[in-house]
Amino acid sequence: MTKAVRRNTVLLALCLFTLSGVLQLAVAVATITLVLVTGIESILGLGPAIFLTAGALAALPAGRLMDRIGRVPVIAGGFAIGAAGCILTALGCAVDSAALVILGFVGVGAMSGSVLLARTAAADMVPPERRARAISYVLFGALFGAALGPLVFRPMFAGKDLALHTLVLPWLAGAVFALVGVVLALLIRPDPRTIALELQVATEHAAGDAADIEPAAPLGDILRRPGVPSAVIAALASFSVMVSVMNLSGYIVVGHHHTQADVFTVISLHIVGMYALILVVGVLIDRVGRRPSLMAGLAIMAVSTIMLAWVESIAGTSLSLFLLGLGWNVSYVAATAELVSHARPIERGRLVGATDLAAGLLGAALALLGGAAYSEWGAVAVALGGTLAVVLPAVAIFLARRSPAPALEASG
Length: 412
Description:
Elements: H1 3-38, H2 46-69, H3 71-95, H4 98-115, H5 118-124, H6 131-140, H7 148-157, H8 168-186, H9 192-206, H10 219-223, H11 228-255, H12 260-275, H13 278-288, H14 290-307, H15 314-341, H16 345-377, H17 379-399
């Protein structure tokens, strides 16, 4: 790993650290923010749905833009939009405006959809056999964002009644973190896309092939390549279930008669589950294989979601959310590594972006359905629905015919 690659990897990890801090705030208070500003409890799933839909709709154009102009401008632009979103949300809380809060949620969601594509940048800079661990190095930065809840955001709620005015300062703090992300992203150079293209040219020269860069294939053709469908299914299931359950967990915790401050403990441990073991997970995926890892991750998620049917304590809910994060970690890293291995550098952004688009929209739908189900039947409905949503895709991947070795593994 060259000095430039190491430096870029660290900066990308720091970008995920700042993103993690903002998203932890959003997960913990988005549902209650929208309920307070509208006064309608039955729409508790709408806040997460707005985030997820905005992130999903941003992912595909952001991915296409990454393929055209590079990874850095898109990541930096995403953070800038997120900072504006946090400021609008804070303003909406200050003046009791649902319109401003919703517009702010859209900005924060768009930031998430754009910046999470940084994992594509991680895969750009290394050979195929090291892609899962490279992705894990960058995602590992998000682990330290788990500390921001207890250390930064929880004290802002300690000893205060939950009201709109108490939400203004936390959302402004989120804007500061997003602006730090802009600076970190602009320090990344050379652009990981440039490194990927150089690796591709070097590989083709070594193989005696022409080094001309062919145009990107249509997205439909990429999605039909062997190995891609299973990876897409796993990515959709793992991401959509994880984000929908995670976003509803804050309201579930409060529904069990715990305080809003306790939500940050649960969410922090969830983030620890998502990222604490990710360096080990990346190495294991490269060694064990991506297809078994897809199924293993979904199986762990099934254990975590079914637990929500009976656990009510902070410790029990924290364990459930920890396992949810761990299962997502395994399946999602494996899915991303598989996807980028079936696409060339000028195709990766659109493939991962399209997958994120579908996963985000599915997650938004599950959040809305889960919110309505929770209002009607309680946490058991969320637990059973989430479990089915990961078990059925795992069975489908298991029954699918094993794909041949990817034709693009040797490409940069």
